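Our preliminary data section would be incomplete without showing what the modeling component actually yields. Below, a chain of 340 amino acids is followed by its predicted structure, encoded as tokens that our downstream tools consume directly.
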Amino acid sequence: MKKLLILFLFLPQLLIAQDTIPFRIAFFNVENLFDVCDDPLKDDNEFLPTSHRRWHYGRYKKKLADVARVITAVGEWEPPALVGLCEIENDTVMRDLTFYSPLKEHTYRYVMTNSPDPRGIDVALLYQRDKFKLLSKQSIPVKFKETKKVSRDILHVSGLIITKDTIDVFVVHFPSRSGGEKETENYRVQASLCLKNSVDSLMSVRVSPRIIIMGDFNDYPSNRSISEVLIGKTANQSYDRKQLYHLLASKSKKKNWGSYRYKGNWGLLDHIIVSGGLLDNQSCFYTDEDKANVSFLPFMLIEDEKYGGLSPFRTYSGMRYQGGFSDHLPVYADFLLIHK
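Predicted structure:
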């Protein structure tokens, strides 16, 4: 009788647990996932068997397996429902990653951009079809004023989750800092303005906008592209469902914390930003900043011989092949999805 009473007391919690579905999203800059074939329309000469890097099929196959390993490890007990990727060369590498690497066991599908980037690298989104039903995709070009510069397109994907709610996902890879941080800052600001315009247009037509932005901004949370243009507030402030909030900005203030290490200093270049409606814990699909983090996977870290401490284990150090994973660590966020 006593056992029945205990079961009765805990039955509501058990029912809730059964209806709660894990939904993790992640973003990972994979660091130059190129195939071994020459594309005459792109500047991919660095990653060919005849190049100084000696990028051959064996290294390519290992890279695919390494990316698959990282994605699986980020998911921990269950692979992430959505994974944003950048520095993807083309559709061939995405097909090989999803169908011919160890990732095939997770039955991912993908969408990606086809940008005018000179090197041919793009952004992509992996999704699990049992958790995300693809509705539409859009490749948004980033246009710069008074220059012929080109960059990666912004990927916008809409889909249904099991609660029948529509979520909109943006995956970005903003212009690099090559040439100097200050000298290139305006390019990232303009890319961010392009993203903000697309988000604002979406918020004007969505009754309950549920927007997730993830990507490599090549900027830190305090930089203009994020703090001024996107107004990426931290999630512990009062929220507005049509405002954007940064899930990782508060943690980025900690010492020795971030997704990227430059000259011995960790910093956050990879971001997850959401609309305020996704911070409402009364809804069936929500998150908060405590559920977001950088994935410090031990196998992705290596001793930094120059600056000390640990750094991301890169595929290449300069032109020297190391056989590592990436110069970035993945970031992720968990959502509570309640199927009533």
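The helical segments are 2-19, 57-75, 91-99, 181-205, 224-230. The CA atoms of residues 88 and 122 lie 5 Å apart. Preliminary results of this kind motivate Aim 1 of the renewal.
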